[in-house]
Design a protein that fits this description.
Elements (H helix, E strand, L loop, with lengths): L9 H14 L2 H8 L17 H17 L3 E3 L1 H8 L3 H22 L3 H23 L10 E3 L2
Antiparallel strand pairs: 1-2
Helix pairs in contact: 3-5, 3-6
Amino acid sequence: MPKHRASFSRLACVARAVVVMYFSTATAQAQYREGEAPTPPARADVRTLGPKDGGARYGQAIGASLVCPNIFVLPGTEALLKSYSGAELDAFKAEAQSVTLAWKKTLGCDAAADINRCRLLNDKSCSEAIKEIGTAGTVLPGLIEFRK
């Protein structure tokens, strides 16, 4: 392996992999060939969001508010919960609990053993949450907000 390649950080490798995966999609390739700018992923509509996906986003919002500094849950999170009923609500709550539990486990990361790994895990998770469900989110905007 050439010496200059060995200096890439693990995060740079992950970022490169994400870019490669995005441009490997058929839509992005077609747009690139035609000279158009690739379109970002479509935002989810709460009305068409299944209970498992809705519960996952709800759990992500609750988890981010517990783990990430200066992240607050917005009223859209409560509205998301209220949009399900019956068996769908049960599936929603089960998925939300599972995702929230995964976020809570990051609080138990032993920083004394590996502070960089813990910090990177939390930083990456928090930035993804803001990107996906923040006020200008790409997936389901308006569930959380960053406030100083």
